[in-house]
Each structure stands twice: as C-alpha cells, then as structure tokens.
Amino acid sequence: MELYEAMSTLRAVRRLKADPIPEEVQGRILQAATWAPTGGNMQPWRMIAVTDAGNKQALEDLYRPYWEAYVPGYEEKMKSMPEAAQASSRRALDAGTYLATHMHEVPLIAVFCFNPSIMTITDIDQPRTSVVGGGSVYPAVQNFLLACRNEGLGCVLTTLLCYEEAKVKDILSIPEDWYTCAHVPVGYPVLGGHGSIRRKPVEEMVSFNQF
Amino acid sequence: MELYEAMSTLRAVRRLKADPIPEEVQGRILQAATWAPTGGNMQPWRMIAVTDAGNKQALEDLYRPYWEAYVPGYEEKMKSMPEAAQASSRRALDAGTYLATHMHEVPLIAVFCFNPSIMTITDIDQPRTSVVGGGSVYPAVQNFLLACRNEGLGCVLTTLLCYEEAKVKDILSIPEDWYTCAHVPVGYPVLGGHGSIRRKPVEEMVSFNQF
Questions:
Q1: In this structure, is residue B99 part of a structural domain?
Q2: What is the domain range of residue B133?
C-alpha cells in the first residue's frame, strides 16, 4: 500500500473479529515495528505479543473498569466539541465499550515496553523527561499501526492499562526495570474498518517560525 | 512509495543540502504529520516549521554545545558494541558533527510541541506519566519522518534542544503551557541519503505472552 494512503486511512478500529492472523502477516507487522528509529539506535523497547487466551482475558478484566471510568470524563469533554465531532466521538465511545468487553477475543494484543535506563536521554527536567523518552518507542508503535493498516488489520493504540502496570507486569513476567506504554489490540475489522479520519486542518497544526 | 519500503529504508540522514524544498512537497510532509492518531483524537501537539535564517542559526548555536557534550558519552557506550555497530555508530557521530555545524543551512527545522493539559492521560505515576503522553505526539513525528523519506528528503529526529527549551521557546514564541519534544532538520541528502538500516532481529525485540 502507498504510504500516504495508509496514513490517511489509519483510523482506530475497536470492533475486531476473533479470526486468527496468518503467521506471515503477523511476521510482517512485527518486523515493521522493529524498523523504527530510536535515540542513539539503542532500541530501548520490546513488544510482548499476547496471544494466550488466559492472558488476553486477564488484560480485558484489568482494562474494563478503567474504560468505564474514562467514559464520563470524555463525555464531558465532548460537550465543548463541534456537533460533527460529537457524533464521531460518540461512535468511538460505543466502539470502545465493545472493545472493553471483547478484548479477550482478539487474536493479538501487542504490549509495548521500554527501559528508561537504556535510553540516551532521561535526565531532562519534568514534564519533558519521559515524553522525550517516548521518542524512542512510539515511532515503533506507529510503524506497527501503519503495518496493520497495510495488512487490512484493525487496531487501536490504548494506554489505559498503564494504570494497572504492576498487574500487567505480573501477568506477562515483565522485569522490574521495564515499563509499559502501549497496548494495541489487533484483529480483522468486524465492519469496514479503515477509512476517512477526522483531523484539524494543517493550518491549525503547523505554523511558520513562530508558534 | 510502498509503506514497507519507506519504513525499512528510513535512516537518519544528517548531511543535508541547503537546497529549498518545493512548496507542494513541503505541504505533503506537513499534512502527513497531521494524520497521526492521538489519545481521544485531541491532537495535543503543534509543529513550528522553522525556515527563517536567523531562527535556524539561533537553534544551531544552542544545539552545538549539547552535541559536543553528547559525543563522549556515546563513544563510551560504543566500546561495548559489536565491531560492525561501532563502525556505523562512528559514521553516525561524524555525520552528527556535520549536522551540528551546518544546521543553519537546512531549508527546514520542524519543532514539535505538546501541551500536557490537553492530553487525555497525564496523571499516571512517574516514570510513565509523560512517556505515555508521548503516545500523542511521536506518532505524528514518525509520520513526518516517513513522509520525508517518501519525498526523497533526509531528516533525523533530534531531542538535544530539549535541554535548552526555555531559550527555544523564547526564540519561537512558544507559550508557557506548551513544551518541545522533537526537532527534525529536513533537507535533500548530500550523499545517497536513505538505504539499509541496522536493527536487532525481530526475535530479540518481540516475545510471545511472556517478556
């Protein structure tokens, strides 16, 4: 798939089928993640590809209450959105609720981990310290999402499980010095899946020489 | 360009020509950044496209001492690398020194900013707080890098200027509640530019069900 077509149609897909992902497809989306740049080429991230039924159910059980707690605050934010944005945000919330109760069915949950001690830059004052660390892991996550799009797989970047990191680490045997920063359920879309996305115009996002 | 070809040949290009970027090309790389997903579709980032000669020189003057201070530590890390990695890291350092003294010449420096107060998730305990916030800005940065690759433009994700954020904010009139997290010089490559990249094999980066 052409790069801009993949990027411009990569939307969050939260209604995912249980159908398995062929091994060669899975191999390609995993490899795409590893191609991402990282500071000093240190690659201070790892991914755990969760496919085990028990592990997936355990992650869903941890995720669901945080999703339910997240919804009211986002509904509050929606009130200040333009009408069209409200409608699409409502559909996204409904799909999110679907995901929160079907996560155990998806064929794959990609859990991205990072280790601050092997990042090149970690000693900058808050709040930039670790946002900057994110520069050595989220490019890999974005590569992974784009690769899923390329393969016709639905996916969505979630972070709510960071609230239950201790338990997630326990379930997946993640060592003490590694942290989690993204949990991406992947599967074939129940409906059409990808398509148009809603973003602010370039003129609102980019300025020249002055903020 | 096909997605996987772009990803697998996106390497850091630090020797960049002063040649201008055609307006339509510039328009496409800026738009590609805006397509990226963000938490709750809040798009809590902005980019300042720095093209003004004075601003570029000012950023180079701030950058150079941090580059010079960064080199010895990285050279120390290199000692524990395999020989092939040492050689390519040496070439990267030399190219980095070129960049540190020619940054004022590049046609464009993209400065990515973010605002934690409009991010959906900011209240998770350190060190994950703001790494997770990075999930709403570095996907845009990665889209931008891939778009540059697609257009034959060289680029590299740098973060050293975060150490001089106060001065950068002053130069670019960045408001108090916005922070900087990536500075991407962009231009046509002096040499071939893109090509093979050196990454760990998938088996080292990805495991199944357990870390």
A1: no
A2: 3-51+106-205
Q: Do B145 and A37 touch (CB under 8 A)?
A: yes
Write the ipTM.
Answer: 0.94
Q: Per the structure block, which two tokens stand in for B115?
A: 């605002």
| pLDDT at residue number A196 | 87
Per-residue pLDDT of A57-91, as tens digits, reads: 999 999 999 999 989 988 998 899 888 888 888 98
Q: Which 8-state DSSP code applies to residue A195?
A: -
Residue of A nearest to B117 (CA): A127
User: Does the pLDDT value for residue B31 go beyond 70?
Assistant: yes
Identify whether B57 is part of a domain: no
How many domains is chain B built from? 1
In a domain, A99, yes or no: no
Residue B60 has pLDDT above 90, yes or no: yes
Is there a contact between B49 and A209 if contact means CB atoms under 8 Å apart? yes
* pLDDT for the residue B84: 83
Within 8 A of A35 by CB-CB distance, chain B residues are 7-8, 10, 197, 199
Q: Which of A4, A45, A124, A131 to mutate to test the interface with B (most CBs of B within 10 A)?
A: A131
The CA distance from B1 to B151, in Å, is 9
Judging contacts by C-beta atoms under 8 Å, the chain B residues touching residue A12 are: 37
Category of B199 on φ-ψ map: left (φ > 0), alpha (ψ -120 to 50) or beta = beta
B162: domain CATH number is: 3.40.109.10
Please tell me if residue B77 touches chain A, with a CB cutoff of 8 Å: yes
Interchain contact, B135 vs A32, CB within 8 Å: no
pLDDT, tens digit (0-9, with 9 covering 90-100), for B100-134: 999 999 999 999 999 988 887 655 555 555 788 89
